[in-house]
Write a structure and sequence with these properties.
By secondary structure, this protein is an alpha/beta fold. The chain has two domains: about 5-225, Spore Coat Polysaccharide Biosynthesis Protein SpsA, Chain A; about 235-320, no CATH class. It is built from twelve helices and twelve strands. The chain has helices at about 20-25, 45-60, 70-75, 100-110, 160, 185-190, 200-210, 235-245, 245-260, 265-280, 280-290, 295-320; strands at about 5-10, 35-40, 60-65, 85-90, 95, 115-120, 130, 135-140, 145-150, 170, 180, 215-225. The strands form two sheets. Strands 1, 2, 3, 4, 5, 6, 7, 10, 11 and 12 form a ten-stranded mixed sheet that branches. The longest helix is centred in the last third of the chain and has 29 residues, at about 295-320. The protein starts with 5 loop residues before the first strand and ends with a helix.
Length: about 325
C-alpha cells in the first residue's frame, strides 16, 4: 500500500443526521490513501451503531464520548494520534467531489502553505452554490480601536457563474468544514483554544497561524459541500440548539475579541446564530410569524431552544461527572 501522508479527522458540527452520507462520500474517492479518525460526541443510537460498525469494517479509529463536544474539544482529543505529515479537519456534514484530497495535497506540496482550503459549497444540489472561496479576515484600527473584519469570497454565487475567477491564491481564512493543515503547524501551536465553544474557532486558528508567518491558500480544484438539512431531526435538536446557544456564542465571541484586543459586538449572534436556530422549525416559524409576527415568533422559538439547551447541559454535566 502507498505511504499515507495525511490523517483525516471528522468531528461533529451541529447535527448527526448527515454522518453516514459524509463517511460514505469520504470513502467513495480513495485516489490517495489516508488515515481516518472519527470523533463521536453524544450521537443518537442509530448513528452510534453505524459508526461502530463502519469503524470495524473499514478499520478507522473511532473515539466516542457520551456527551456533546464543542468543536475544539473534539479536535483536541486526537492531536496526539496524528502521525502523518498533513491533517485534514472535516465536519460530519460534508460531501466530497472526486479528487478533492489529491488537489489539496498537491497545493500544499507545491506552495508550502501552512493551511489549504478547498472551494466550500453549501446545500443541494451539491458542489454548485459557493459558501466560501477563501475569505478576507483582518484587524484594522478605526478611531483608535482594533476592529475585526471578515468577508467571504463569492458568497452564495453559483460555481458556473464565477468559475473562471476561481484560482489558487493566498487567502486569509479557512473554515473547519474542510481544512488541510501541516502537522508541524499543529505540533508547534499545541491544542486548539477550548474557550471558543461555538464560534470563531477557525478564525482564531487562522489568525494565529498567520501571526506565526504561515500562509493560507485556496485550491478551487478541490471541492466539498456542506449539507444543511431542514428541518433538523428531533434526535438532533438538543445538540443543534446547544451548539448555537446564546451562552456558548456570547462566551466565545467575548473571549475571541478579548484575546485579539478587538471591539466586541453581537453581530454573529444577531445575524447568524439566532436566525440559524429559528431555521430548525421552518414550518412552525412560518406559521408563528403569520400569527404573531416575526419578533414574537423568534422569541418563542428561542424559549423552546432554551429548554433543549438546559437538557443538553444537564446531560453533559452528568456524563462529565461520571467520566
Amino acid at each position: 500500500m502507498p505511504k499515507t501522508d495525511v490523517t483525516i479527522i471528522m468531528s461533529p458540527r451541529e447535527q448527526f443526521g448527515f454522518t453516514k452520507r459524509s463517511v460514505e462520500s469520504l470513502y467513495s474517492d480513495q485516489n490517495i490513501p489516508f488515515d481516518f479518525i472519527c470523533i463521536d460526541g453524544g450521537s443518537p443510537q442509530e448513528v452510534r451503531d453505524y459508526l461502530r460498525s463502519e469503524s470495524e469494517r473499514r478499520g478507522f479509529k473511532l473515539i466516542r464520548k457520551p456527551y456533546f463536544l464543542t468543536p475544539n474539544e473534539a479536535r483536541n482529543l486526537v492531536l496526539d494520534e496524528i502521525k502523518t505529515r498533513y491533517v485534514v479537519f472535516i465536519d460530519n456534514d460534508v460531501v466530497f467531489a472526486p479528487m478533492w484530497l489529491t488537489h489539496l495535497l498537491q497545493c500544499a506540496e507545491e506552495t508550502g502553505a501552512a493551511i489549504v482550503t478547498p472551494l466550500v459549497c453549501i446545500g443541494e444540489p451539491v458542489h454548485t452554490k459557493i459558501h466560501m472561496a477563501g475569505a478576507d479576515a483582518s484587524i484594522t484600527v478605526r478611531d483608535g480601536k482594533r476592529v475585526f473584519h471578515e468577508t467571504h469570497h463569492f458568497l452564495d454565487s453559483l460555481v458556473t457563474e464565477v468559475g473562471e475567477q476561481l484560482i489558487r491564491k493566498p487567502v486569509e481564512l479557512a473554515e473547519f468544514h474542510c481544512m488541510l493543515v501541516k502537522t508541524e503547524v499543529i505540533k508547534k501551536l499545541g491544542k486548539f483554544d477550548e474557550n471558543l465553544k461555538s464560534t470563531s474557532e477557525h478564525t482564531d486558528f487562522c489568525l494565529t497561524v498567520r501571526e506565526q508567518g504561515g500562509t493560507i491558500m485556496i485550491e478551487p480544484r478541490a471541492v466539498v459541500t456542506q449539507i444543511f438539512g431542514l428541518p433538523i431531526s428531533w434526535s438532533d435538536l438538543k445538540f443543534f440548539f446547544c451548539r448555537w446557544s446564546d451562552e456558548w456564542t456570547i462566551d466565545s465571541e467575548r473571549y475571541f475579541h478579548k484575546k485579539w484586543n478587538t471591539v466586541f459586538d453581537e453581530s454573529v449572534l444577531k445575524y447568524f446564530v439566532r436566525p440559524r436556530r429559528r431555521h430548525a422549525f421552518p414550518k412552525v416559524c412560518r406559521v408563528l410569524q403569520a400569527i404573531v409576527g416575526w419578533r414574537i415568533s423568534g422569541w418563542l422559538i428561542d424559549r423552546v431552544a432554551e429548554v433543549f439547551v438546559w437538557s443538553a447541559k444537564r446531560d453533559r454535566a452528568a456524563a462529565l461527572g461520571h467520566s
